[in-house]
């Protein structure tokens, strides 16, 4: 019999449901919920249920996506006499578009003249259709379906919506408040496609197993001939982390099957042994060394198998590493790797996805330089992703140095034009874009190509930054009113950021209080400190199930997405051999009662689930609202465990926790413990959740119940990393005020004693003379 929810839990569930309903309605621009639900249900991405495996996307599946899934987080708000907004969509290599249509949910101003106003649907700069805006339908949500001819669709496409609006036959203000239309991001794009079978050629890798044009979650099964040993799992982890790095922007999962092929789509088959083998009816020839082969999936004419084989586990790992590190140099349907020799060993915090801390980084290294140019009076933000290395210590630091060189078109007259710099939606600095009538003659004479160049030096406060941050640069030009019948918008204002502008992280130390599950969720730290995970080990459950193995591979995919590098150095082991990896950071997986380390380290765990009995430690901080994103040193007392709660019955709770390694005080342990066989899937779904209204994974203990995340504890009782000796001394003294006074007093006494002895010696010398 299930336990009843407490009144507090019922209130929380009702509040969360209400928030989600309101958020959906606001995001859709007052779109009716049944319509929004129908649009979401049509999408293969939205069909995935948190905590459960997503459907495997294959060629020929319906390719239907809402504008939100195509990257439009809010409604398209179109203002003025001529306004355009766009989004991009691509057609996967495995598909050929035979037609398409767009379903728009929109509303518009009641003041518009129907004969002069319309919304144009444009595909690749060609008008596919126009939507009239009749007076009688204004002010309420409308639906329109526009067919897109197949001949307009290419591999890479831009879908634009152009709003043409007029409110009077006479002179009009081109930016009048009545000139508006809004298109909800619940609008959908539906592509009709046919499958195009790819070739059996390693030169196409990572195709067809990963296609960067496909925005659906990557679901790539791994197939083993039997229960895989640790070496085989290490090889599989290298490949899953590589695929995870490729699919970072959309997510990936890697279900595991033993001696069975998926009925549809692609799969990776891992085989180690000197003799020929048969895996799920597929004949694998005896390998002559580390071997990579691409061949058809016998269950699906459009599916492929990537067979990774070797005469032993060492060769299997070499084949996997060769594909992950040097796959671009391969060709043919089958190759044998003769030699693989890494030239340079990895260094701490040198992951390709992270900003280097040993040199200034040019913005052109972080974003396509073409995206640093904008046009128009309000062109929107230039967003530059900043992936900061985890564990950067911002203690007593002024901020990261940002040197911006930007250009703009000086207007003849203006008073409100500005250039703004923001970090994660927080304003950092704003400068006025001076018009021509306020510039010195010498400055005007130096203007080249009608653009004025200026410099800005900014400090970015890293205490406000997370591992994945956004630098936002925005030009806003003032539209100067000329008077009735004289207001004409001339699109001659431009702005650009010099690609040679730099951000500099030199001088920052890597030092962090632990445990910190937030940085584990966002960046895989501390395991990703080495990009290849060469100082990390995964402790799998005894008799791990295929669900446990799939969770392990999916975690490797998350780590690869964080670093951009395959986990070729990860070690896999079980509890009985954990002493052999004592010098590494340990990631411990458990589902139910199949992990002996949970009993061996019970005195260090702030949680335990044994049968129907559960125990959790709680802190006062778990009662505070929205306090998890910014923890400061003054909150230390509230983060300390104050209550141990034990109870029996109810559904088994899954949890994440971290603590200092019992085997090596310089290392960390993170435990992902599923309450049952599906618990690890629930934890992975919680880690992948991007719901802004839901609780997030932070602190040192987090409970996961279905789709509910409950942070319970945020103890920080040890530190990782290092600082320079002087900074370390200053930091230590700042945390031990009494010791600082003792040292100061001792220093005064010492100096006083030395002065006294010196003066006494001089006095004796003078008297003796």
Automatic annotation (TrEMBL):
Keywords of this entry: c-di-GMP, Cell inner membrane, Cell membrane, Cellulose biosynthesis, Membrane, Signal, Transmembrane, Transmembrane helix
Domain of life (superkingdom): Bacteria
Q: What does this protein do?
A: Binds the cellulose synthase activator, bis-(3'-5') cyclic diguanylic acid (c-di-GMP).
UniProt subcellular location: Cell inner membrane
Membrane topology type, per the record?
Single-pass membrane protein
Family designation: Belongs to the AcsB/BcsB family.
- NCBIfam families referenced in this protein's UniProt entry, alphabetically: PRK11114.1-1, PRK11114.2-4
- Which GO terms are recorded in the biological process aspect for this UniProt protein? cellulose biosynthetic process; UDP-alpha-D-glucose metabolic process
Say yes or no: keyword Membrane present.
yes
Q: Which Pfam families match?
A: BcsB
Signal peptide (UniProt feature, chain positions) = 1-37
This chain belongs to the protein called Cyclic di-GMP-binding protein
Under the subunit heading, UniProt states: Tightly associated with the cellulose synthase catalytic subunit.
Q: Can you quote a single GO CC term?
A: plasma membrane
Which chain regions cross the lipid bilayer?
Answer: 737-759
To which pathway does this protein belong?
Answer: Glycan metabolism; bacterial cellulose biosynthesis
């Amino acid at each position: 019999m299930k336990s009843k929810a407490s009144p507090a839990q019922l209130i929380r569930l009702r509040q969360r449901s209400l928030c989600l309903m309101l958020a959906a309605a606001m995001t859709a621009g007052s779109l009716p919920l049944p319509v929004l639900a129908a649009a979401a249900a049509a999408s293969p991405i939205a069909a995935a249920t948190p905590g459960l495996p997503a459907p495997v996307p294959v060629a020929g599946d319906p390719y239907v996506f809402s504008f939100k899934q195509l990257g439009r987080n809010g409604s398209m708000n179109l203002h003025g006499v001529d306004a355009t907004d766009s989004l991009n969509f691509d057609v996967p290599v495995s598909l050929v578009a035979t037609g398409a249509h767009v379903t728009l949910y929109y509303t518009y101003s009641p003041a518009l003249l129907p004969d002069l106003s319309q919304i144009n649907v444009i595909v690749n700069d060609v008008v596919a259709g126009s939507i009239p805006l009749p007076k009688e339908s204004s002010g309420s949500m409308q639906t329109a379906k526009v067919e897109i001819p197949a001949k307009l669709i290419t591999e890479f496409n831009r879908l634009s919506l152009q709003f043409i609006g007029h409110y009077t036959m006479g002179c009009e203000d081109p930016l009048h408040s009545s000139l508006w239309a809004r298109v909800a991001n619940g609008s959908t794009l539906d592509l009709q496609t046919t499958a195009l079978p790819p070739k059996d050629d390693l030169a196409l890798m990572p195709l067809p197993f990963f296609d960067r044009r496909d925005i659906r979650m990557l679901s790539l099964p791994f197939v083993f001939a039997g229960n895989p040993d640790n070496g085989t799992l290490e090889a599989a982890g290298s490949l899953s982390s590589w695929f995870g790095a490729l699919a970072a922007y959309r997510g990936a999962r890697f279900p595991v099957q033993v001696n069975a092929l998926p009925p549809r789509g692609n799969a990776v088959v891992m085989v180690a042994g000197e003799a020929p083998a048969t895996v799920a009816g597929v004949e694998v020839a005896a390998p002559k060394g580390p071997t990579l082969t691409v061949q058809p999936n016998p269950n699906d004419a459009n599916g492929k198998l990537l067979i990774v084989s070797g005469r032993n586990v060492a060769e299997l790992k070499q084949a996997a590493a060769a594909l992950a590190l040097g796959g671009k140099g391969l060709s043919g349907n089958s190759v044998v790797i003769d030699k693989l020799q890494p030239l340079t060993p990895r260094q701490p915090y040198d992951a390709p996805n992270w900003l280097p801390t040993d040199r200034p980084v040019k913005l052109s290294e972080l974003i396509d330089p073409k995206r640093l140019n904008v046009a128009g009076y309000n062109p929107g933000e230039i967003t530059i992703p900043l992936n900061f290395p985890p564990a950067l210590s911002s203690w007593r630091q002024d901020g990261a140095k940002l040197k911006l060189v930007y250009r703009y078109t000086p207007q003849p007259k203006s008073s409100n034009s500005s250039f703004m710099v923001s970090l994660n939606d927080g304003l950092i600095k704003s400068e006025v874009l001076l018009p021509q009538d306020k510039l010195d003659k010498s400055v005007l004479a130096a203007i080249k190509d009608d653009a004025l160049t200026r410099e800005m030096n900014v400090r970015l406060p890293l205490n406000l930054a997370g591992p994945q941050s956004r630098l936002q640069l925005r030009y806003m030009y003032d539209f100067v009113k000329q008077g009735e019948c004289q207001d004409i918008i001339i699109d001659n204002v431009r702005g650009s950021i010099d690609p040679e502008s730099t951000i500099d992280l030199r001088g920052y130390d890597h030092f962090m209080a632990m445990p910190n599950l937030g940085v584990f969720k966002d960046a895989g730290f501390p395991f990703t400190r080495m990009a290849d995970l060469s100082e990390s080990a995964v402790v799998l459950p005894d008799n791990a199930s295929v669900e446990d193995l799939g969770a392990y591979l999916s975690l490797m995919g998350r780590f690869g997405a964080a670093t951009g590098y395959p986990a070729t150095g990860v070690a896999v082991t079980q509890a009985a051999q954990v002493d052999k990896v004592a010098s590494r950071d340990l990631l411990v997986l458990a589902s139910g009662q199949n992990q002996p380390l949970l009993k061996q380290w019970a005195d260090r765990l702030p949680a335990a689930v044994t049968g129907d009995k559960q125990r959790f430690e709680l802190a006062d901080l778990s009662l505070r609202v929205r306090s998890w994103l910014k923890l400061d040193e003054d909150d230390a007392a509230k983060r300390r465990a104050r209550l141990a709660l034990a109870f029996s019955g109810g559904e088994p709770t899954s949890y994440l926790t971290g603590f200092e390694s019992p085997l090596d005080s310089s290392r960390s342990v993170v435990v992902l413990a599923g309450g049952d066989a599906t618990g690890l899937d629930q934890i992975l779904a919680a880690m992948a959740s991007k719901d802004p209204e839901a609780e997030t994974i932070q602190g040192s203990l987090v409970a996961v119940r279905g789709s509910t995340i409950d942070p319970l504890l945020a103890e920080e009782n040890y530190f990782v990393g290092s600082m320079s000796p002087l900074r370390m001394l200053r930091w230590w003294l700042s945390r031990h005020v009494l010791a600082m006074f003792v040292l100061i007093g001792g220093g005064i006494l010492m100096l006083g004693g030395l002065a006294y002895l010196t003066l006494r010696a001089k006095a004796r010398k003078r008297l003796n003379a």
